[in-house]
Amino acid sequence: xxxxxxxxxxxxxxxxxxxxxxxxxxxxxxxxxxxxxxxxxxxxxxxxxxxxxxxxxxxxxxxxxxxxxxxxxxxxxxxxxxxxxxxxxxxxxxxxxxxxxxxxxxxxxxxxxxxxxxxxxxxxxxxxxxxxxxxxxxxxxxxxxxxxxxxxxxxxxxxxxxxxxxxxxxxxxxxxxxxxxxxxxxxxxxxxxxxxxxx
Length: 199
What we know:
Layout: E1 2-7, H1 18-32, E2 36-41, H2 61-70, E3 73-81, E4 84-85, H3 87-96, E5 115-122, H4 127-140, E6 150-154, H5 171-193
Parallel strand pairs: 1-2, 1-3, 3-5, 5-6
Antiparallel strand pairs: 3-4
Helix pairs in contact: 1-5
Protein name: Flavodoxin
Organism: Microbacterium murale
Domain NADPH-dependent FMN reductase-like: 1-153
């Protein structure tokens, strides 16, 4: 089984990032479960605006798209800015829109039988709002979301402590990583063995 973590931080590598930390923690959990896990920091790549599979010269999305298609589980991680998901996350979601018109040999959307979970971090409110947007969008293009399929952390309102600044991972976050990813691996295995029928 394969997983892909897409980290939608605004900070290019090698800058420290709370989103990167959460994504790494989720990746480690999956690896410990025997899942082969790959990670990309989307901002490090040229992802041109648009809703096509390939937006032409200089567009690096086609190679990233292949990683999405190769994965059984997508871990979509975004920071919270002004109560919203990042602009990088929005760009990735828009590029996934192209998959609405892609079908397999049975006429099913090409992302059927794949699972998506979300990770959201920020020192302000917004995690539930962002998760709702991510789940609706990812489900629209064909992903299945497992029970309690989100991991999030919100810092104290009006303070500046980031997730990466914490001395240890909060117990509730660790528990959410365990629940969401255990469910994701279980669901991905079921869908791999017996996928959705053709409509």
